[in-house]
Hints:
Blueprint: H1 3-25, H2 31-49, H3 51-58, H4 69-72, E1 78-79, H5 80-85, E2 99-102, E3 112-115, H6 119-131, E4 142-146, H7 155-171, E5 174-178, H8 184-197, E6 201-205, H9 206-215, H10 220-224, E7 230-234, H11 241-251, E8 255-261, E9 265-270, E10 276-278, E11 283-288, E12 298-304, E13 315-322, E14 325-327, E15 330-334, E16 336-338, E17 344-348, E18 351-354, H12 355-363, E19 368-375, E20 381-387, H13 393-406, E21 414-418, E22 432-434
Parallel strand pairs: 1-13, 4-5, 4-6, 6-7, 7-8, 19-22, 20-21
Antiparallel strand pairs: 2-3, 8-9, 9-10, 10-15, 11-12, 12-13, 13-16, 14-15, 17-18, 19-20
Helix pairs in contact: 1-6, 2-3, 8-9, 9-11, 12-13
Amino acid sequence: MFLFPYLREKSMQPELNKEIDFYKNLSVEDISNYQLMNFNELWQGIQKNVPFYKNLVESNELPKQIKEWTDFQKLPINPRSYVKEKVNDFSDHSREPDSWISTGGSTGNPLNFPSWKEESVNYESSLWYARDFYNIKRSDRMFRLWGHSHVLGKGLAKYKKIIKFKIGHPLIGFKRFSAYDLSESQLKIAGEEILKFKPNYIIGYSKALQLLAKANMDKKNDFKKLNLKAVIGAAEGFDKEEDRDYIGEIFGSPVGLEYASMETKLLAHTHPDGSYKVIWKNNLVECVDEEGNPAQEGRILVTSLYPRAFPLVRYELGDIISGVLKNENSVYAFSKVKGRDNDFLMMDEDTPIHSEGITHAIKFSDKIVAYQIRYTPENVYTIYVKSNSKLTEQDYNDIRSRLKKVDYRLPGLDIKQVDKLKQTIAGKTKWLIEE
């Protein structure tokens, strides 16, 4: 074990031990009591510092104390699309944010929200608690098939990130391989890099991992010699369970899934027993039907249980969960999640481009609030962007410059500014849709 990975593991071990002890010592029957008590403490600050809730409490539409489920269920359900339009009203104004974070995903409609530095403390300990399900340690070597958004930024921040990825990550045993180009030739190179690097585990966009396995099926026996602890998919689910089984067969290891979003951080993680375990120390999760009533299968709602610049209260992600296990109305485990289907943009039959690559290139523009790519039956693609102000020629050139770093053909697509994006029959705004 090299010095830096060892020091990272040693520094995290006390927090990890606390996390393990917490989940071990609090019984399932105590979950909802713990969560409601914890939320009520946060609620005292939220109702003072978050305009949306302050107005509702002052008009006596919401209670000042949240002591039981009947009180909690008086709080409104807030879909992501609604919150996105009123981020300022849903943010804590007791102090300035340390940074602003932007989501990616399958809608092409990123949400920008404020964050405080100390929020990452909860994320780190929970992340390594979940990875410990697969005996993954902080000192283990990781191969990551992921986006390279750091090369798309600008100014000093861009170069700081480049230094971090080129120098910092190798020092701690991380190797990152771009998921922007998922052509078979590139994925074969990734396979060779995995064998050279000899990681303890692999993480990547779930659908990219399926393509990685398919492109390197001839290396199946060599991969098995690595004795990988796990291959973990993230950012999206698999198209079908068979894809997960196939990845496990090629790499000779368990295959897990992180369930997270930029807003919630890690929300749940698969366990080798087959279920998703909710990180319920940090998140109160509900499952409700279309009318908002508790259900065994339905919409997932998330309430954050630690201080945040952007507190989530009955926040609807837009996904569906099923096979839920609850203590009262608090979900602590579930079997399946449906949602966030990140389609590929096919510039040709051999080069799938993941949605995150497009989103990363476009979201660096401060003016753009949403985008969509539409295609004709003849596979002619057009990028439509929505902005609060008129885009200049320089704005278009900046977007094309970043798109070129994802794929050299993307700058050739026509870019048009529009007031509205096209929706599906179900009323959803997908990032990739037929004209």
